[in-house]
Automatic annotation (TrEMBL):
Organism: Paspalum vaginatum (seashore paspalum)
Record's keyword terms, sorted: Coiled coil, Leucine-rich repeat, Nucleotide-binding, Plant defense, Repeat
Pfam family membership, one: WHD_DRP
Name of this chain's protein: Uncharacterized protein
Keyword presence, Cell division: no
Amino acid sequence: MEAAVVSATQGALRILLGKLGDVLSTRYKLLGGVRDEIQELKDELESMTACLRDLNSSDDDKRSDQMRIWMKQVREVAYDAEDSIDVFCNQLESSRSGESRGGLARHIHKMVGVLRTLKLRNKLATEIQSLKSRTQKVGDRRLRYKMDAAPEGGSTSSPNGVTHLSSSSYADVDRRLPALHGDASRLVAMDGKTKQIADFLDEAGVARLRVISIVGFGGLGKTCLARTVYDSSLVRGIQNRAFVPVSQTYDLRSLLESVLRQLVPRPMGEDGTGTKKEEDPLHGIESLGVSQLIDKSIDYLKDKRYVIILDDVWRSEAWENLKIAFPDNGKGSRIVVTTRSHQVARNCCSSSNDRIYEMKPLSKMDSEILLFKTVFESEKCPSEYDHLKSVCEAIVGKCGGLPLAIVSIGGMLAQRQNKTEADWRRVSDSLGSEMQTDPTLEGMRRILSLSYNDLPYHLKSCFLYLSVFPEDYEIRRGALVRRWAAEGFISALHGLSLEEVAQGCFDGFISRSIVIPVQLASSGEIRSLKVHDIMLEVITSKSVQENFISFLGHNNQHNNTARHHHDKIRRLSIQPGNGIRDRDFSSRSLPHVRSLTVLGGSTERPAAITFSDLKLLRVLDLERCRWLSDGDLKDICRLSLLRYLSLRGTAVSRVPDMVGKLKGLMTLDLRETLVRDLPRSITQLQNLNHLMAGEYVHYTRTHSVKQFAFYDNRAVTAPPGGLGAMKALQRISFLNVGGSPHALRELGELSQLTRLCVLQTDRSSSWEHFGDSLSKLSSSLRYLSVMQNGFDSSQIAPLHFLESLCSPPLFLQRLHLVGNLSALPPWIPSLVNLASLSLRQSYLGAQSQMVQVLGKLPSLVSLKLFYGSYTGSGLLFEKDQFPRLKQFVVDYLATLHEIRFQGGAPRLERLSLALGSGKRVSGIESLLILKEVELYGENILDPVVEEVREMARNNTNHPTVTREDRPKEY
């Protein structure tokens, strides 16, 4: 497993070396003689890093236990050294915190500070000497046991003399979505399978509840087939549907809650903003027990036709627990189960009415087509690569017809710049022959391990980090990038922003087909992803062997391995499952934990967690932990090394003043909490990059239409002063600046701000000074949301200041405005990079030339017109308008009667419309790459739906038409 060790160990060393360099700089002049010790430690570790770099691409299966143990020891020294340096720097900064005082108090504090600094320096000197001694002994040990860094056979030679399997390049990535991962244009042999399942679902005369089990070996594409069926026009025409990943370590309560959240629509208000919290039919669902959730599901589904997909069911027990929530109501309802187990499939299909569909491997011909599509984006091998045909046949044969194996190897081969037969033959030889004769999980793991080992070394730590999350978990891009940054895995470099560096990592993963894109923005950017469960097994095994991540509640054999082979737990992921009460971990075993992830789903605090004991914690993710209380935050705010804190979806209501002590905090996530006010001490967080609050309401099942929850102000109120001192802020989302002229003025001092979301709900509030602030931020802002809710068209335009900006934010990529506008700001036509625009309550009339102005924006891919944004009677899309538009949303425009497409928006892919009585749309048949039309809201008329479906049938691309009736709030 050396490749994984190299990634984890080398990553730890790289971070440490950066910190040692910083400590040796003039920033810490009081180090005295300790500087020489630190320099020697740094020199020794740099030599070890070079050795580890040489090992990066070697075949890990050929490495000795001695080498693995040596690399473990290097890593542990690096972790301990980083802890010592971080604690020292933090304490040193704390000892200087009173230097700004005046008079006698300052003199006394300075004297005390000198004594404290001497004590800290002596302590650090002792620790560094011990670490240096350990490092030298580790180095000597490698020489003593003759552990050679040179990889063994089956490799090519690199310029530096180290032989290795050539590494892939991720330059010029085309961001292809792999066939297995949802790009319908690259699916192979799926049409016939989809039709057969669809026939089972739609068989005439079968009114009773029917269960269809899709069973087969891991990697055959069961989930892909189920998702294809779920996204088909047949199922999308059924309003009551849900897709629920079950997985091996499921939490029954969380699964039932997920089902209800997908099934039960939220009522819409008069302005389409969604119902108030207390009138939400799912209000309080977090506090319901399992039996109550089952009753709620039965009650809701008792008179409705529904389709439920239960993906990845491992045990019959899970089926027995879930099936009672789905009544047989004689409405022709269907449940589709995917499983690896034939026994589970039989138990699910116990009635003669049920059906079992067994997945088979791809034929040789289909396997070759899939490989060619993945590597060459063509069903055939291009003529210039005829010399690779024979080796392609060998690779296909060794993949055993498993789509996951073929796509994984194909994604790896696609990245090779020099497509030589010798290089591909080495890949083929490394696959072994297990899959050819006897497809087993072990053979599948070997293939996926090869894809992992082929990653460039700088991507491996980032990829291993994905094992923090459990099976079937949807990993959000933004949170993952912020965690990577807090862990030190990525940083801005060579003129690239953190986001651009992260994009390179995602491109590397996607192009190699080793992750599954789940949600894509209209621009094509990945919003969330998943890791296939077999690949997750691979990287989980590597993470545990490395002591990269330890697990609690993770239902597999890796837990015991971690406990018995590693002295210190560095990162801990507590996951839902029966192991959550595992007593093998205690607070006494966690003093060295630097990253703690407690995945929500339980109302019970893990027994092992005592926040006050976690002194070295840098990353703390408590998203959706319902047991978290305001009292816990006092202990959390004592964790002086903390860099990332997510309280998203918890019940906390107050951030204590002590939060100002978290000097190193980079991310504070308060979204979907009850926190409405920020303490004044928040302005002491000089390193904070991301301050996030608020909550969205989703209008459609696909989440393609969402808006900030206006009906219940979910923003946090700006501090009364000092915001301008938070110079590191890059993102502020949803900040209520009402009644805070200081905040409006100080925002202009945040020169690194790229994303800003501000709102006011107080009618007496003014936007004075905000125009000046926006002008100061004109070169940094990429995302701007300005919201003034609660005004109608008869009142003075509250956003008029936007019309007279002296220096508008011309580099904007996303702009969202809520509030009355007399006209579109005159600088809108200059936004050549604007990709997304949404308007609400702007009351722009036909005379505003809105369509004509916006239609000329060269980069606009998403346009959303919400309630009150436009008061004209028609929207006409003419030729040459909206050249790149992919998504168009019209939501509750009372005066709008017609939308007509006459040659404009030629690249439109998704059309989402809330059409009431008397509304019509025409020209859909001319949108040649349209994929989907969503009709949603209340009062959807059958004739309108049928008219849209008829146009869709006449469209050569045959877009799906979905209807989502949602009740109106009364």
